[in-house]
Design a protein that fits this description.
This protein is of the alpha/beta class. It has three domains: about 210 residues, FAD/NAD(P)-binding domain (3-Layer(bba) Sandwich), CATH 3.50.50.60; about 100 residues, no CATH class; about 90 residues, Alpha-Beta Complex (Polyamine Oxidase, Chain A, domain 2), CATH 3.90.660.50. It contains eleven helices and 19 strands. The structure holds flavin-adenine dinucleotide (FAD).
Length: about 450
């Protein structure tokens, strides 16, 4: 009998791990406390709109980590291809085109003409670097090695924002370099699934179910149970479910709600409790008539805002003649921890939108404001990069595996969840095979 696996959590990470394991013939049971799958990427249907949790950008399209997981389980993502990928940066009171390709850097109005050569040289220098040499150095350090031009430094905050780390004083240069290199190689740097993240979630769910895996939604895991230093299963709804291995996918900051700290080293406990996430607020809007026709995004660095009108490139997301718009404001975690800051950020975000589109709020049918202390599980600053984070297989409890956007996967945000699942699946298979041979 092959060992069975319990997966805690039905977000990108848990569903990916579940689909990969189930497809390879390993019996899985996935527990999700919510009644709906998707976790921080869950989607709702509301008055004819399909609404992701805020804007859910899918990086590198068919070459990205989400598409890779789906390919591994025999599926493909159907993308909504944009006709016009122009995105805009709101800077100095106006919307300025964001350069799409390196050639565009020599014309970009985001820096004055006299700074463009320095910008181009610094970007060229960046793509020639090996990310591994730069993970533990800040983006600002990289830029200052090439130029002291303040306009170029400001531009590099935009590159930091690609990994949700516009604070170039602390953002890891290696993580940004890795992102830029992947974006250069991808046919499409950003390509969204038709119907939003739900397409990915539904496909992963169907793979698990069709290969004999079990999904228990609305079932909260209360504890991970251990015996002689090994996880033996979980307690959920007052009942013990046993397993040969357990995959934990909520952010690692929540681990000790499930398992006693005593099983781990003090260094690991301190690391897991103090790993800094990104924080922020989002507002999704149903608009009774279109307010803007752009298919790209709007980015602002001061305040840090990302906006989009997703129904412009994917008409399935809003009823005919109406428009879906979604906005995100990133708030430093240290600030967000003080509760009122997040509420104030929602007001600032509304003011930002009103300033940009004075008639926007005349057209709002409904809005959904949300605040998150954990937006991305990890802020990709120096000391928290892929090489610094906890290993996928716990060194303390050998049959406990960590998957999700705080684990040791590549990329940023949801990409880490997908990538860590692809790394975890063979490790779990090896562990189960070895454990079986030892019997
Ligand atoms: C507003 C917003 C916008 C974002 N935008 C982007 C973006 O543009 N691009 C991008 O790549 N990423 C984005 N992200 C981040 C992305 O959503 C996450 O990185 C990703 O969804 C994390 O997946 P995960 O599986 O690691 O964790 P989660 O999605 O958090 O999954 C963990 C799951 O565990 C479940 N769980 C927790 N406790 C229990 C329990 N006791 N028992 C059972 N189940 C439990 C949770 O309900 C959850 O479903 C955004 C996030 C937010 C909030």
């Amino acid at each position: 009998m092959r060992g069975n696996v319990i997966i805690i959590g039905g977000g990108f990470g848990g569903l990916s791990a579940g689909a990969l394991l189930s497809k390879s013939g390993i019996p899985v049971t996935l527990f999700e406390s919510d009644t709906v799958l998707g976790g921080r990427a869950k989607c709702i249907e509301k008055e004819g709109y399909i609404v992701d949790l805020g804007l859910h950008a899918n990086r590198f399209g068919d070459d990205g980590p989400a598409a890779r997981v789906l390919k591994m389980v025999g599926q493909a993502i159907t993308f909504a291809h944009k006709k016009d990928r122009t995105s805009y940066v709101y800077q100095d009171g106006k919307l300025i085109k964001r350069p799409n390709a390196i050639e565009d850097f020599l014309q970009t109005e985001l820096v004055p003409e006299e700074s463009r050569q320095a910008l181009l040289q610094t970007v060229f220098a960046m793509v020639a670097e090996d990310p591994a040499d730069w993970y533990e150095k800040a983006l600002l350090q990289f830029v200052e090695q090439h130029t002291q031009d303040e306009h170029v430094k400001r531009f590099f905050r935009l590159l930091g924002f690609t990994i949700i780390a516009p604070d170039i004083e602390t953002a890891s240069a290696g993580e940004v370099i890795s992102f830029i290199k992947n974006a250069q190689m991808a046919k499409e740097p950003l390509a969204e699934p038709v119907g939003g993240a739900k397409q990915i979630i539904d496909k992963l769910e169907s793979v698990i179910r069709s290969t004999g895996g079990e999904i228990k939604t609305g079932t909260r895991v209360e504890r991970i149970e251990l015996q002689d230093g090994k996880a033996i299963g979980v307690t959920a709804g007052g009942r013990l479910y046993t397993a040969s291995a357990i995959v934990f996918t909520p952010p690692i900051q929540h681990l000790f709600q499930f398992i006693k700290k005593d099983y781990f080293s003090p260094d690991f406990v301190s690391y897991a409790e103090n790993l800094e996430p990104t924080s922020g607020v989002s507002i999704d809007f149903g608009l009774r008539k279109p307010v803007a026709d752009m298919e790209g995004n709007i980015i602002c660095l001061d305040p840090v805002v990302l906006g989009s009108f997703p129904s412009n490139y994917d008409s399935t997301l809003a009823p005919a003649g109406k428009q879906l718009s979604t906005w995100l404001m990133v708030v430093p975690y240290a600030e967000a921890k003080k509760g009122p800051t997040l509420k104030n950020a929602l007001d600032s975000l509304r003011d930002f939108i009103r300033n940009l589109y004075p008639t926007f709020f005349d057209n709002v049918e409904w809005e959904r404001p949300l605040a998150y202390l954990i937006l991305d599980g990890v802020h990709l600053k120096v000391g928290q990069t892929r090489k610094d984070r906890h290993s996928i297989q716990s060194p303390h409890v050998r049959n406990l595996f960590f998957v999700g956007d705080t684990a040791q996967g590549d990329g940023c945000s949801g990409d880490i969840a997908f990538d860590s699942a692809t790394k975890a699946a063979p490790m779990i298979q090896d562990y189960l095979a070895t454990a079986r041979n030892q019997l």
